[in-house]
Design a protein that fits this description.
With 109 residues, the protein is mainly beta. It has 1 helix and 8 strands. The strands form 2 sheets. Strands 1-2-8-3-6 form a 5-stranded antiparallel sheet, with no helix packed on it. It has a 3-stranded antiparallel sheet with strand order 5-4-7, with no helix packed on it.
Length: 109
């Protein structure tokens, strides 16, 4: 068993390109943003905002959604998204899972 603290930065579990689940804590500076909308064809991606605020853009319509401390947003596999703006240094936990929420819903039917 290994325990973690939410303030620890870096990879907590898995490998980004070769895992059922990947968990990483990051500290994002105010200059951080994703250059373009992107998607993950093989995994859902969750952002847990541990401290701070992130403005996300999602979908081809580039809809803006702001998530603050304590908030969580999930982009399903294949869903376009990007970090558009960070206005204050922000701690984020990123969780990527190949066991899609959509898959789980479909199996339950």
């Amino acid at each position: 068993m290994k325990t973690y603290h939410l303030n620890e930065l870096g990879v907590i579990g898995g490998r980004e390109s070769n895992s059922d689940i990947y968990i990483k804590n990051l500290l994002l500076g105010i200059d951080h943003k994703d250059a373009e909308l992107h998607s993950h064809p093989d995994s859902d991606e969750y952002y847990v905002i541990l401290d701070g605020k992130v403005l996300f853009e999602h979908g081809e319509e580039k809809v803006n959604v702001e998530i603050e401390t304590g908030g969580v947003i999930c982009f399903g596999r294949g869903e376009l998204h990007r970090i558009a703006q960070i206005t204050t240094p922000t701690k984020v936990m990123i969780i990527k899972s190949t066991n899609s929420v959509r898959d789980t819903k479909n199996r339950a039917k």
